[in-house]
Request: fold
Amino acid sequence: MDKGSSPASEEETQLIQNWMIDNELDYFTDFHTANMGTHEDAYTASWFATDNADKESARAYYRTLNLMTNVYANKYAELPNDLIYGHVKKQGYLSQSHRFASANGLKGSLLEISEYIKWFEGDIYKVGINWAAEMIGNLIIELTREHLY
Reply:
């Protein structure tokens, strides 16, 4: 895929934007996995960004984070006590697709999840991938609860 020469010039971004226009969406979540063991989020398992006005989505993320932190702290006792399971970042971290969704009146968020939990001895990628799958699944449940009820 072309990396793009300007914002939204990448083919995959254009496909997502066209799909948003062609479908009646209630909410958009841009989900990414990353090896966060190599930069400022080295001790973080996930982070979330949304429009400042979208308090419902931030609450859904916090509920998901609370649930998942309890599950993983018990399931993987060898994870360090100082592991940051997640936090909310400022709106400036939103992706191009999220900005497009917002500009078209669609609420949304960005969820970044580490695929690599560097302190885990053994199959670190399996733990990270499990974390990613369980985080996104549980976040979708919480977002649905928050926006439908």
Notes: The chain has one domain: 26-148. The radius of gyration is 16 Å. Residues 103 and 140 are 22 Å apart (CA to CA).
